[in-house]
Design brief:
alpha+beta; four-stranded mixed β-sheet; 5 helices; 4 strands; globular
Length: about 110
């Protein structure tokens, strides 16, 4: 329910970027240590919303989040997916730095 309202429905107002991270992914944990995703959120504040979704197909505790990841075609991490008007408009790997830079090509002309 939260994913539907915070991501899908909200993407009709402005784009929503979600970083999908496996709980045991070294690159995902490095991005977490760098504060990359919050830096992206700050850099693009007002232009898009940014969220993180942690999943783990080997842990039943994550079943709901694993289902969301699967429904959105996520099979590895760190995967970034940009939603706009309720649809996926871009997905792929991304490695933003601690300043939130590095997703410019990924975001392309999808922001206002």
């Amino acid at each position: 329910e939260a994913f539907e309202s915070k991501v899908i429905e909200a993407s009709y107002d402005k784009p929503v970027l979600v970083k999908y991270g496996l709980t045991y992914c070294a690159h995902c944990l490095l991005l977490e240590q760098l504060g990359s995703v919050p830096a992206v959120a700050e850099k693009y504040a007002g232009e898009m919303d940014v969220f993180k979704l942690w999943w783990n197909p080997h842990d039943e505790m994550f079943n709901d989040l694993n289902a969301i990841a699967g429904e959105n075609g996520v099979t590895s991490s760190p995967m970034f997916i940009l939603y706009k008007d309720g649809e996926i408009v871009k997905s792929g790997y991304g490695f933003p730095d601690e300043k939130g830079e590095g997703l410019e090509d990924f975001l392309g002309n999808h922001l206002a």
